[in-house]
Amino acid sequence: MFEPLNGIRRFILISFLPLTAMVLAIDSRQFVASQGLNGQPLANVFIISYFLLLLFGLRPEQRLMALIFVPFAAIGECIFSLLFHLYIYRLEMVPLYVPFGHGVLFSMGLLVAELSFIDKHEEQLKPVFILSLWLLFGGAILFLHDSLSIIFGLVFLWVLRRKGYQTLYFIMGFLVLYVELVGTYWGCWSWTFHPFGQSWLHATNPPVGAFACYVLADLGVMKITRDWKPKIGVRF
């Protein structure tokens, strides 16, 4: 166990948004068309290296959660993408970088939630977060007829109520939505128009509420970490 390196924490916070966009662009249909080669292996190297670097910027308990999140995310991807076909990746298989990317995304949410600005202004930020998300949900449902996001919205509301409207879950929601918008724009994956083959269920590409599944995974990983920490000696 080693203490986090502040320089790496700062680098991760600064680089996450542009690096995510770059990696997804490398795995995009446009990159394949323009360069004539598959950029996915390069994207794998970038994200796995970034994930390993990230570990040095996390506290021990955060490091454990990030490591648990990778296999947890891999299982979830196989269920939702390969089994249920909620969304399909460009090559119709889950890229290697995706589970590691989930670990990066989860860790980024933890780091943002710990920023002094967020901590200092948490009570003022919560109403802004709530209004922003419900405007997004309302717009998607009313104007885009994204009925899948109705279900996702109810799930997310349940998580928020269960966790006392913690700022972390709003932050996770916005980060996941950013990744979903960039990834679908570049064609790295696309969501099924009628999920589960149900004609009455409609999803946009991506559905606004897609992050609800992600915050459920957050809850699962945090519970596993709490159960494991006494056994492996990680201090909270």
Can you describe what's shown?
This protein is mainly α and 236 residues long. It has 10 helices and 2 strands. A two-stranded antiparallel sheet has the order 1-2. The mean pLDDT is 91.
Topology:
Elements: H1 6-26, H2 29-35, H3 40-55, H4 60-83, E1 87-89, H5 97-113, H6 116-120, H7 122-143, H8 148-162, H9 167-185, E2 189-191, H10 211-232
Helix pairs in contact: 1-3, 3-5, 4-5, 4-10, 5-9, 7-9, 8-10, 9-10
Number of strand segments: 2
- Low-confidence blocks of residues: none
User: How are strands sequenced across the largest beta sheet?
Assistant: 1-2
The share of residues in helices is over 70%
DSSP helix count? 10
State the end-to-end distance: 12 Å
Mean pLDDT: 91
Strand composition percent: under 5%
Main beta-sheet strand count, sense and barrel state: 2 strands, antiparallel
Give the count of structural domains.
1
Rounded Rg: 18 Å
The secondary-structure element order is HHHHEHHHHHEH
What is the 3D shape?
globular
Structural class estimated from helices and strands: mainly alpha
Tell me briefly what this model is.
With 236 residues, the chain is mainly α. The chain has helices at residues 6-26, 29-35, 40-55, 60-83, 97-113, 116-120, 122-143, 148-162, 167-185, 211-232; strands spanning 87-89, 189-191. The protein has a two-stranded antiparallel ribbon with strand order 1-2.
